[in-house]
Amino acid sequence: MKPIQVGLIGLGVVGTGVFKVLQRNGAEISRRAGRDIVVKSVSRRDRAAALTVVGDRAAVFADARDIIRDPAIDIVVELIGGTGMALDLVLEAIAAGKHVVTANKALLAVHGSQIFAAARERGVMVAFEAAVAGGIPIIKALREGLSANRIGWVAGIINGTTNFILSEMRSKGLDFGAVLKQAQALGYAEADPTFDIEGVDAAHKLTILCAIAFGVPVQFDKAYVEGITGLQAVDIRYAEQLGYRIKLLGITKRRDDLSHLHSAAYAAGGIELRVHPTLIPATRLIANVEGAMNAVVVQGDAVGNTLYYGKGAGSEPTASAVIADLVDVTRLHTADPGHRVPHLAFQPGSLHDTPILPISDVITAYYLRLVVADRPGVLARITGILAEHDISIDAVLQRESADGENQTDLIILTHDTVEGRMDAALAQMQQLPTVLATIVRIRKEELT
């Protein structure tokens, strides 16, 4: 059977991994796909650097559009990243009748609806397993393997840089700034790590998972995003004492009963879409994911909780996911478009417009750390404020003051409550003269 011809746009870390794995495992991959998958051409602005990778085994172009214009190319693999030029190239490839494989989570989180609509109209596939959690096949699991389930929630460690930083802060007791420098020196963090440490990268990935889990459009602009830059080593230590670990989690949940919000807008329920530092019980498997590894937990009504763990980045782990997409597209290359797996798992006409909840309407539990004056009545006043806002307490930890100290740390764990209530309670507590510093608030999830 005639080989599938691939054009590879971008020959950086991941692109090089794709080319090398295809060369190394080509025979095995062909046995799975039913025909050979051949990289016919690659594009990279630095042609000399590209030639050192591919030699004479593929044509090299400086202009990616030379690949798109080639009628022999069946699949275009986009690995340049970003949402500018990448969007133009992907749409041009679709318009030219090419299937597209991409690892570009930002592109899909921001422009996914436009891209998928264009692909449906042209009758081509857009595959993106590598866009979320590197080599972990979480997209296929959600879109196909768990299709019998009504998904309740998805929670994931989906950024390796932040997980490495938090792991080092916990194990070595270091502050954020010191560990960030270490992560940059080891190559885990970019020179400008903003997208990672501010949670944006994780939010891009979570937006895609949310769409597939619940059958809604991609809506990155509605995600709540909070990074790890404000985390302090002292809170990681207190969390450990209380039996918890702190991870940067992407969490998306289906909320069916929102009658407490008294809003007709949520009569049919809503969806939480949020990225932030989170306390997780240390007994949960995901709480023990360390270093730069990724993990995603999916809760389905039939299967219960399932955990997906592995390398979330890197040349060959990500290449593994890209090539899995190439195999899928090759198998379905000649299939009727209506018989292919939908991009977002649900048939296009069946996507719902279930609203994404603002963070003020989210329900979760909390860890609070207050620096308070060490005098009688302080705890009673603070717990009284929480009670006034219908917030119940799960646990309290108060550090003993050293001799001569006139202040102490007060740690409170709450049960689930609406975030808006917690906001109001915190504002009231912050005004107390016995509260001596800005109150630290970190969300807490049991993930049961």
Give a verbal description of the structure:
With 448 residues, the chain is α/β, with parallel strands linked by helices. It has 3 domains: 4-127, NAD(P)-binding Rossmann-like Domain (Rossmann fold); 139-313 and 353-359, Dihydrodipicolinate Reductase, domain 2 (2-Layer Sandwich); 364-444, 2-Layer Sandwich (Alpha-Beta Plaits), CATH 3.30.70. Helices cover 36% and strands 24% of the residues. The protein contains 15 helices and 17 strands. The protein has helices at 13-24, 26-33, 47-54, 65-68, 85-95, 105-122, 138-145, 160-172, 176-186, 194-197, 200-214, 233-241, 315-331, 378-388, 419-430; strands spanning 4-9, 37-43, 59-61, 75-78, 99-102, 126-127, 151-157, 224-225, 244-255, 270-281, 293-300, 304-311, 363-373, 393-398, 407-414, 417-418, 440-444. The strands form 2 sheets. Strands 7, 8, 9, 10, 11, 12, 13, 14, 15, 16 and 17 form an 11-stranded mixed sheet that branches. A hairpin with an 8-residue loop joins strand 14 and strand 15. Helix 2 runs parallel beside helix 13 and helix 5 runs parallel beside helix 6 (105-122). The mean pLDDT is 94.
Runs in which pLDDT lies below 50 for 5 or more consecutive residues are none
Tally of strands: 17
* Percent range for β-strand residues: 15-25%
For the termini, the CA-CA separation is: 49 Å
The gyration radius over C-alpha positions equals: 24 Å
Main sheet overview? 11 strands, mixed
* Global structural class: alpha/beta
Report mean pLDDT, rounded to a whole number.
Answer: 94
Q: How many domains would you count in the coordinates?
A: 3
- Annotation field: number of helices: 15
CATH domain topology of the largest domain? Dihydrodipicolinate Reductase, domain 2
Assign the CATH superfamily of the largest domain. Dihydrodipicolinate Reductase, domain 2
Estimate the helix proportion, in percent.
Answer: 25-40%
CATH class of the largest domain: Alpha Beta
Shape descriptor: elongated
The CATH architecture of the largest domain comes to: 2-Layer Sandwich
